[in-house]
Please model this.
Amino acid sequence: MTADAKAARRPRKGTAEKLVRAAGSEFNEHGFTGTDTNRIARRAGFAPQTFYRWFRDKTDIFIKVYERWQHEEASMLQRLLAKDASDARLVQAVVTHHRRFRIFRRSLRQLSIEDDVVRKARADSRLQQIAQIRTWNPAQPDSTPALAVTLFKMERLADALAEREFDDMGVDHKAGETELASLIHGLRSSRRTADR
Model:
């Protein structure tokens, strides 16, 4: 076999990442149940069988998309915290991130109830988020349950704001934004004396 033939048989660098990006778009447009692996592969520019060289099944890539989503959110928050962004700016960024992926997040919520693998991945991700919060503010109490309660409140409020659930009720969404800002403020470094 020639060197060119061997190179052609080797997977292209970035194939898995292209598949994850394509899957993210598919899941966010069509939800988990409306997406299939063939469509993901074709959207990424590959033949359908390429998918299974990289991922076991649709759930496997869904979890990779979730991990990527979570990493993007953490990186965004890290950049904003490094700039000492206001609590209100952090709220806006979190809600926008949730809103951009609201159909994906709907699937995540549903699969977390129905699928033990996704449920475990989500629990692991939340524990990583708590660890990240501790790096942002070492003065946080060492109580994982207390931080988990705050994280659940923030997550649910961000999703409700992203889904415009306050508007559905005819209730001013500012109350939700104010509460989310308060929760974020409570997690921020004690060195921060005032919200700008």
About this structure: Residues 3-11, 190-196 have pLDDT under 50 and may be disordered. Residues 166 and 172 are 6 Å apart (CA to CA). DSSP finds eleven helices and no strands in the chain.
